[in-house]
């Protein structure tokens, strides 16, 4: 799980000192963050700079918890107890929209946020015809012309119209807030192929940023 507080510096030179301080005090930052919970482990601090605006994307492992609250609490302590006193920079917001939370984004697709899920399926010709009323060739053409080309034409980001969010939300529909992170769940990649044994369909899917807990 990630959280990215945004800071304001007094100028480019202050930004340089800020980044240098963070790099040199990573062990201190990790100590403060991991002191907030036995489940939190800080694994990466990735800065992104725009002049006097600095984002620090902190990546955590949070065990079987989803980790949204754990990451937020850890960042809050890190900002107040270490970064602001050590750098003199002001934290403008604890979440600077570079996390990225509840928004489809390239950074989440590329670097992930939450859990990465990979799955594959193989369906024989009998299953395709009797259950899905289709063929491997027809299914692959839908994947190519609708999910891939159609999504490119629409400028879709990450989901390629495969409706991952619907299926993931349905799996968690027994919970009070099953659709809270549907925007994150919609991002993924898939591959479909017809080959191998006669009439067989093979599919692979990868979800980049599934914000789900195993417990809690």
From TrEMBL:
Record PROSITE patterns: HMG_COA_REDUCTASE_1 (PS00066), HMG_COA_REDUCTASE_4 (PS50065)
Q: Which GO terms describe its biological process?
A: coenzyme A metabolic process; isoprenoid biosynthetic process; sterol biosynthetic process
From the UniProt record, which GO molecular function terms apply? hydroxymethylglutaryl-CoA reductase (NADPH) activity
- Which InterPro entries does the annotation name? HMG_CoA_Rdtase, HMG_CoA_Rdtase_cat_sf, HMG_CoA_Rdtase_CS, HMG_CoA_Rdtase_NAD(P)-bd_sf
Q: What is this protein called?
A: 3-hydroxy-3-methylglutaryl-coenzyme A reductase
